[in-house]
Amino acid sequence: MIIRQDDGTFAAVWGPYVLRSAFQPIFAFYNGRATVVAFEGLIRPSRDGEPVPPATFFASVPFAERLHVETLTRTLHLGNAGACLDPDTSIFVNFDPSVFGEKSVADAALRDMRLVLREAAIDPRRVVCEVTEQKSASEAALHRFVQALKLQGFRIAVDDYGSADSDVDRIRRLQPDIVKFDAQWITRLMETGPGFALLSTMVSAFAEQGIKTVFEGIEETWQLELAEKSGASMVQGYVLARPQIASIGQAPSRHSSGKPSTLVELPDDQLKNGRHRRADPVRGVFGRRTKSP
């Protein structure tokens, strides 16, 4: 069940849990500046008023209820995106491929998405459907589902690329618009010269195929520097901004270019000299709309 709250945002109830949306900004580089271009929807559960780790919540969901909970959380994120987020930004939402093995299930999910987007006044082209990089029950069914998403105007991202189940052939078959690299994997590669060279080569190879890349889990300034140097299309992580619970408040300032507010600007000397220093997370920044009077 989804409930509209007093401030105009939405929360959901599933059993004893209250579910809220948190949005984490995703950034692109523009002339040495990291600028918000998208947000990822993340679930923040609570029980009896106390926060519950998302992993604990999802582990408590029986398999028979997973599709329902997936639909509930996605609906929640899209409703809050329509209420809160800058309409010029993209919205990343997750899909678990293991629950879309049957065509009837996939068709129902698409119908639900169309209704939610219409209600939230969100253009499907703003939505990036993240397919988790894990084995599905049927690769053929997954391929059909991804193609159906594309036909509806959604963009496709493969999540956690580089983890144990990664498969270059799967990327070739699905032909996503975006590949999100696994945080731990890219951190290991960044720690050595040969590893970073391999990472940069992969980014270039994807770019040649028209596929954008996102580096997740960027927590250190030196990682941010290397991400830009590698040519990564976008970056996401605590060094830039933490997830924040959806709320309606003051909208961010804009540049004359019309891009959303810049949160981080890297000093030129730091970029050139590769100085490694820890950066404090940026707090209190969120791509919100103002509440209507």
Question: What report would you give on this structure?
Answer:
- With 293 residues, this protein is an alpha/beta fold.
- The chain has a single domain (2-273), classed as EAL domain (TIM Barrel, Alpha-Beta Barrel), CATH 3.20.20.
- It is 35% helix and 25% strand.
- The protein has helices spanning 54-59, 66-84, 103-120, 139-151, 168-174, 183-190, 193-208, 221-230, 268-273, and strands at residues 2-4, 10-14, 17-30, 33-47, 50-51, 90-95, 127-132, 155-161, 178-181, 212-215, 234-235, 244-245, 262-265.
- It has an eight-stranded mixed barrel with strand order 3-4-6-7-8-9-10-11, surrounded by five helices.
Q: Can you give keywords for this protein?
A:
293 residues; alpha/beta; TIM Barrel; 13 strands; disordered C terminus
**CATH homolog superfamily:** EAL domain
Note the gap between the termini.
27 Å
Overall pLDDT metric: 81
- The spatial strand order of the largest sheet comes to 3-4-6-7-8-9-10-11
CATH class: Alpha Beta
| Proportion of residues in helical segments | 25-40%
The secondary-structure class comes to alpha/beta
Uncertain segments of ≥5 residues (pLDDT<50)? 250-293
Identify the CATH architecture: Alpha-Beta Barrel
Number of strands: 13
Largest sheet: 8 strands, mixed, barrel
